[in-house]
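I hope you will forgive my troubling you with a question about protein structure. The matter concerns a single protein, recorded as an amino acid sequence and a row of backbone structure tokens. Please examine both parts with care and let me know of anything in them that strikes you as inconsistent. Here, with my thanks, is the record as I have it:
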Amino acid sequence: SATATTGDSQKVEEAVNSFGAVGTGDPPKMKEPTLVGATSDSITVKWEAPPPLPSQQLQQQLHVTQFTLFHRSTTGEEALKECFSSGGPDQTEFTLSGLERDTEHCFAVCAGNAISRGPLSEVATFRTKNWVE
């Protein structure tokens, strides 16, 4: 029978630590969204899925099942509000439309799994264009 070596156990522990709080199953904190493109009334952002876990068992228990995107305008709104939840872990881009021309908008994303939702990413700010295309 095979036994795990100390090195293997350490790798799994490091993966769990980088994935979320040890023992909680929380997804990792993600990198902030990046800009794909902007028009005068919309902004498209994307985000990177966290790397897969090294263990099949951990992958089944803790893998990311969805992403939630949060948004706020820099004018008026104080708190980030949920604006999109993905239908699965492969959906990593979203276009928010109906925005005003030449306005700044803040975005943050978090990963979720069957256990919980992870912490929000850092906030990224993007501006709609000031002309109509």
Q: What stands out?
A: Confidence is low (pLDDT under 50) at residues 1-23. Residues 104 and 127 are 4 Å apart (CA to CA). The longest helix spans residues 6-19.
